[in-house]
User: What shape does this take?
Amino acid sequence: MKTIAVTGGSGKLGVWVIEELQRQGYTVISLDEKRSDRLSCKQVKVELSNLGHVVSGIQGAEGVVHLAAIPAPIIYTHDYIFDNNVMATYNVLEAAALLGIKKVVIGSSESAYGFAWSPKPFAPNYLPVDEDHPLLPHECYGLSKIVGEQTGAMFHRRTGMQVMALRYSTIYTPNDYAGLSLADAGRYKKTMWSYIDIRDAATATLASLESDAGGFHALNITADDTLSDWESARLAEQYYPETTERRGALEGRTAVVSNARAKALLGWEPKYSWQQFK
Assistant: This one.
C-alpha cells in the first residue's frame, strides 16, 4: 500500500493519524466536510451520505481509515446521529468494495459496550472487560457503533476484505491531561477509567492497517493503566461490587478494559500514560 484515504481527516484523531501515516512514508487523501490548516496532504470535501462522493473521493487509495462520525449522543437528535454514523460507515465500505480495496480500518468505540452513555448506570458482567463482553448500549451512539461493526463483518464475508473495527477509549491529547480530575475516584466510573493517548491511538490505527491478519476483528484500543490513583481491584470492589467474576487479574493500576487482544493481534503496545504529564 502506498496511498491511504482517511475520512474525518480534519478531526481530532484524523489529523494525528494522517501525520503518523505520512511519517511512515504513505501518501494520504483526507476526506472531510471541512479543511484543516494543519494537514499537508490532499484534502477532498465530501458528503459521506453520498455513495458517489465516497467512491470518487477514495479512488486511487489502496487502504481506507474511516474515522468520520458524530462522536457522542449529544448536540444532534438521536435519529440524525444514528443515520449519519451508520450510513457513512456503510458507504465507505461499499465504496471500498466497489473499488477492490482490501484493507479498511473503521473507528468504533468502547461506547458499544453501553456503560458510558447509559441513562441508568449498570455494571459489567465480568472484569476486565474484553471484546467478548456483550454489547449492551442504551442509546443511539453505541448502537450505531455496533451496526458499523456488523457492517464491517458483512463486507468481510461478502468480499474477503480485511476490516478492523477499533473500539477507541476516550482519546486524550498531551494538552488534555492538565484537565484531569482524579480527586473523585468515581468520576470516570462510567467509562471504566479507560482512556488512550492520541499518539497511541494513531499507532494502533496504522498497525491495524498494516496487519495481514485477515478477517474481521473488533479490538479495544486503550492504555495499559486507568484514570485513577487507586488500584484497579479497589476500584472494582468499591464501584462495581456486584461484578464478582474475574477473567483476568486486576493487578496494580492495570486497565479495567483489556487491550490484550489488540496487542497480540497487531504487535502494538501503548507507550503513553497520563502519569507522564502530571
In short: The chain has a mean pLDDT of 97. The helical segments are 12-23, 51-58, 78-98, 140-159, 198-210, 232-239, 260-266.
